[in-house]
Amino acid sequence: MSDDRYREIARSLQTMGWLQDALLRQARKRVVEHLRKRGVVTALDAGCGAGTLSRYLSDAGMSVIAVDRSPAMLELAGRRASHAQCLQADLSRLSLSRPVDGAVVALSLHEMTESQRVEVWRALQRLTRHGGPLAQRRGHP
After folding, report:
1. Per-residue pLDDT tens listing for the chain (141 residues)
2. CB 3.0-4.6 Å disulfide test: which of 74, 81, 103, 139 passes with 55?
3. In sequence order, what DSSP letters do the residues of the chain get, joined into one string?
4. Domain segments of the chain: what residues?
5. Within 13 Å of residue 122, how many CA atoms lie on the same side as its CB?
6. Residue 20: C-alpha distances to residues 8, 17, 128 (Å)
7. What positions does the domain Methyltransferase occupy (predicted)?
């Protein structure tokens, strides 16, 4: 998706993000609980978008690295999840000083081609500690 399209989405989320949050609140809580039950202390939110899930993870006491390619979305994420470390990066090229305990990718895989999805899963495996949980959240609550 183009940067212009992400800017449009970011603008709409500034005014309508409350609706998306209301629709997905329970699903986000389930993701947080899934990671928490598996001992996740440091979490990678891949394709974090506007940062709402990053905020849920931070509020649950996790140290969060929020990653997105879009500067417009990352700006929103920085405001919504102020305790998260926000990084503008391509996940396939991302390098961390140490692996995270767990990772989640939510509401972004549908934006990718099959080969890009494969790259993302490989990156998540590389960036997550051995045996750490990798959670996927699709758009349906």
Report:
1. 556 666 666 566 656 655 566 667 788 899 899 999 999 999 999 989 889 899 999 999 999 999 998 898 899 899 989 899 999 998 889 999 999 999 998 766 566 677 877 888 899 999 999 989 887 765 544
2. 81
3. --HHHHHHHHHHHHHHHHHHHHHHHHHHHHHHHHHHHTT-SEEEEET-TTSHHHHHHHHTT-EEEEEES-HHHHHHHHHHTTTSEEEE--GGG---SS-BSEEEEES-GGGS-HHHHHHHHHHHHHHB-TT--EEEE-S--
4. 3-137
5. 9
6. 15, 5, 28
7. 44-132
- Tell me which residue of 34, 40, 39 sits closest to 106, measured CA to CA: 34
Name the CATH superfamily for 3-137.
Vaccinia Virus protein VP39 (3.40.50.150)
How many CA atoms lie within 13 Å of 57's alpha carbon, on the beta-carbon side? 34
Cβ-based neighbour number of residue 66 at 10 Å: 30
List, as own/partner pairs, every contact residues 63-66 make where C-beta atoms lie below 8 angstroms and the sequence separation is at least 24, other chains included: 65/96, 65/100
In the structure encoding, which two tokens stand for residue 63, read together? 């140290």
Angle at CA of residue 123, ends 118 and 107, nearest 5°? 65
Q: φ, ψ for residue 7 (rounded to 5)?
A: -65, -40
